[in-house]
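Study the following:
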Amino acid sequence: MRATVLEGVGQVRLVDVPDPVIERPSDALVRVSLAAVCGSDLWPFRGQESFTPGDRMGHEWIGVVEDVGAGVTRLRAGDLVLAPFAFADGTCRPCRDGLFTSCPDGGFWGGHHDGGQAEAVRVPFADSTLVPVRAEADAEPDAELLRRLLPLTDVMATGAHAVSLAGVRPGSTAVVLGDGAVGLCAVLAARRARAGRIILVGRHPDRGDLARRMGATDVLAADDPATAAFVRDGTEGGAGGVAECAGTQSALDLALDLVRPGGTIGSVGVPNGVDRVDLYCLFRHNIALRAGVTPARRYLEPLLAEVLAGRLDPSPVLSTELPLDDIATAYRAMDTRQAIKTAVRP
């Protein structure tokens, strides 16, 4: 089969690799239907995160089960499944607490594991990791449904986690920092949480209309000196919940400017170049900072139910779609900000 590998800084390539096979009774083999390039894929691509040449790429994907191990009981061949960006055994204490990304026997797609930007994936702990959408062995998944489902595997779940960490309540004002795919999905999540006002602060003016369609009531520029004053003046001193979805030092600093005393910052952007946290500011104003990698598996069933019911559609964040053969173009589109998020189809 073919799979995407990172050969060097700025160099991704589609190569032939051995077909995955069942190695353990808990495994499943899944044929990838649709995958995506994530913003966090760009860190090693740009050389800002360590990698080993030849690492597999891609942690956002959905597909159809082709085969299962003898110990798999919840899945069968033909099932369309969602794959959260991390696999987990589902039995350890972190998993029982809903922290699937902290499973000591789990891991993340890519690197020395199979990656989702490929034709097929071997899935460890298939029963606890994969979420079946339906079991129709003879039916091809609908293309539009695939697009609505794909963001659930990472960015929609991560947006929901940001809003949950930030403690956004019905009728409250939520501030979302970052207008990438995660930030836009956090806007959707704040709307799901019935926030009364949703302020998106970003760096790409061309994404404002999309942000408003997804539920933002205000769209502000992160580099505008008036933004912080506008938020503080309009919220009686700052927002109670701030969802930080960028993972940069400037975003964390801005979050501290925009949250009110006693408020909460929910930080889900993968930290890159963040080297300081103003602990005294948190202490002085009773501000809570809650941060963490999203346990995406925890969010999949409720998000799936809303997509299938027609109440949730995060597919607009997939602004570009390309064949897997054009994976290098998909990365360039993300790296140059020509695309919010690029879907790739095998």
